[in-house]
Amino acid sequence: ENLAPHETYVYMANHASLVDIPALFVGLPYQFRIMAKKELFYVPFLGWHLWAAGNFAVDRSRPSGTARSLLGVIEGVRGGKSLAVFPEGMRSADGRLQQFKAGAFKIAVRAGVPIVPVAIRGTHYILPKGSLAPRPGRVDVIIGRPIETRACGDERIPKLIEQTRTAIAASLDRAKG
How far apart are CA 166 and CA 43, in angstroms? Predict the structure, then answer.
């Protein structure tokens, strides 16, 4: 109920497990793209799917390549491709919400699209970081209300980070009850 069908968003979710990515594909009602290091785009089958689906390759080999890649992501989001990211940057070792990095927020602000806080609960139990043996369990994907960025500049990014992290944390806490 929080999303408009033809709106472009940057979905920002917590990251506690490898199961988070498939949970987003199942739980988000509209198409989105992801960012992945460009080397993954050359892996047979996986890479072909990443290219064919229009996901964003990020060149992390040198700073100029990264900057060029991120400009392409911003242009893609401006052009109507929603993006899903994990602003924590890496999976949580203990399942708890970590601090957020600013990069994804800069993409949303510069593209001028709303941020949607997404809380994913239950994946850490199913497949914790470092484990290869999944367990059965329930996964909840809680989609928050969009946070507007159109009138924001880079100076507002710390507030957007706080607002998004607070919304995700509140959804995770509510889901426990």
Answer: 37
Tens digit of each residue's pLDDT (9 = 90 or more) over 125-177: 999 988 989 999 999 999 999 999 988 888 999 999 999 999 999 999 885 65
The 3-class secondary structure across 64-112, one letter per residue, is HHHHHHHHHHHHHHHCCCCEEECCCCCCCCCCCCCCCCCHHHHHHHHHC
| Residue 55, CB-side half-sphere exposure with 13 Å CA sphere | 21
Contact predicate 105/32, CB 8 Å: no
Q: 84 φ, ψ to 5°?
A: -115, 130
Q: Is 29 exposed, middle or buried (0-12, 13-18, 19+ CB in 10 A)?
A: exposed
Phi, psi dihedrals of residue 33, rounded to the nearest 5°: -115, 165
The pTM is what? Answer: 0.92
Q: Cα(154)–Cα(48) distance, rounded to whole angstroms?
A: 35
Q: Residues 96-123: pLDDT tens digits?
A: 999 999 999 999 999 999 999 999 999 9
